[in-house]
Please model this.
Amino acid sequence: MERHSPLLTVEGAPAIWLGANFWSRSGGPLMWTRYDPVVVRQELQVLADHGLTMTRSFFYWPDFHPTPDTLDEQCIRNFHDFLDAHSEVGMTTVPTFLVGHMSGENWDPVWRNGRDLYSDVWFVGRQAWYVRELTARFAEHPAVAGWLLTNEVPIYGGEAPRPLVAAWASLLVDAVRAGGGTQPVSVGDGAWGIETTGHDNGFSSVDLAAFTDFVGPHVYRMESDQIRQHLKAAYIAELCGMVGLPVIMEEFGVTSDFVSPSGAASYYRQLLYNTLLAGATGWIAWNNTDYDDLVAQRPYSHHPFEMHFGITDSTGAPKPPLLELARFASDLAAIDVASVTRTPVDAALVVPSHLAADYPFTQEAERALIVAAGEQAYVAAHEAHVPVAVVREAEDGGIPAGYGLYLLPSVKQLCGPTWLQLRSLAEEGATVYASYCAGDVGVQRGPWWAYTEELFGVQRESAYGLVEPVLDDEVVVRFVEPFGSLEAGATLRFTVAGNEHSRSFLPVTVTTGTVLAVDAHDRPVLVSQSHGPGRAVLSTYPFEYFTSALPRVNPEETWRLYDALAVVADLERDVVVDDPMVFTDSLVHVDGRRFVFFVSQHPEPVTVSPVVAGVLQTLAGDAVSSVTLDAYGVEVRELVYE
Model:
């Protein structure tokens, strides 16, 4: 089955955006009133010399829109020169209109007077006028590659109901089109809405997809586990990709005040390559330079760490992230990235529709659990070398058919028709795996499952209103039957986590199913029920949820279970590595070439000998049997079928 990776098109041609968010070191957000054309050209040249092709730029709203009915003509002249400077070095830019938030502070046009950003008709009209007029001034310039309405507007304008946000955003998109802007347009909100976080801030990627051209996640989340951190942006890209639009990593980066030079380099490396493999087709780093000369200027005076997100320092010298971007640019060119797509896969990681549909009487904590458990399953699938398509359950039920393996990790909620469909999928030959989870809230506590006995061959033995607590600190799982790559007698160990609701298991009596594994108390842990050529496999413990709640835990042993499921499902895996800390996935060129990426999670160099269905060779054409990776390193090889 195909995986999402659509490309942006600009003027009918595919576009790969690789660049940086740009404020000149001559003024930061105040650069347009302190504009230095010489410094700007120096800054752009450094980016171009390292393979970057574009920037994201910002109309600082208080300066560009000084009164409700006027634009600042000097700022506009400066922006024209800025566009010309891009053309001189062969770069483009994506201007951002409503820039009232930046780097830890909000700024209003002086005439806003507390008006609501989304619902005040007069104020929305002034915004639309501003957007239309600026678009008309610049739309014909060849350096303009796209448009963004705002910068992280939920922080600036606040949250609002979804219909109101959609109406406001659609009016501003219409203003871009009325001003003659034919380039791709998006909102610039950060993609922090219900589909990626479980929190409904009003900015639904599904709603906004009706009239925008790409989704632009801003990723700065912090973690308690290194491998989860390295895959976090990739999983967010997968969730964003389910709306069907190109995914542009619109903002990401690290301040060098928080991390070592090598740590900054490895963070960039992991994010760039993992999001490429997750379907992203554009990357705009935050940001182009450091601002040490602006230490007394807000917001840097009160958020000094914001001075040092640059990929160059305050003199323009490259920092480690820019060197990583340069290497990434070289690899993108080597594989001709505009002509590659993600390799089709036969495994699906299912995201319940309760995450995004916002059904009545569904709590935010339940949606957040869906994100966390799914993300941990995504990690385990990488560790098991089982590339997955992340698929969303349709509203009111139904999931895509045609996969050989379905993973439903620590699931509390699915729609009724989906439970019926899972049996049909198994009867058609699929392996369906689901792990129990009671959820971590006390309202309607328990699995909202239907047809459990018919699907899994077990009778639930739960007492109404109670959960069965896990009293052990570690669940030891012993296999009593061989299962895929796991022999009878094999053991898996899982650390337990959760609160009084979620630290629980599902007590069952097996009826027509087969017990595959038991815990230390001989209670069923894994049960398989045959359905003709396929099967349904139940885990009575929420292993993915447990792990998602633990720090510094990966790799943990869920990957061994997923590997066994892949063997039982007879998935085709053309590249397998005997090391859960070296991930692998591939991209396919339109001419048939297949590029395999190896991504190490080891903090020291490592050499692996992959098992492949063919021959691995370097991009220069030399055959290899092993791959050596630096600490947290990435290597690209071509797989040639014999």
About this structure: The chain has three domains: 8-339, 347-568, 575-640. The mean pLDDT is 96. The longest strand covers residues 92-99.
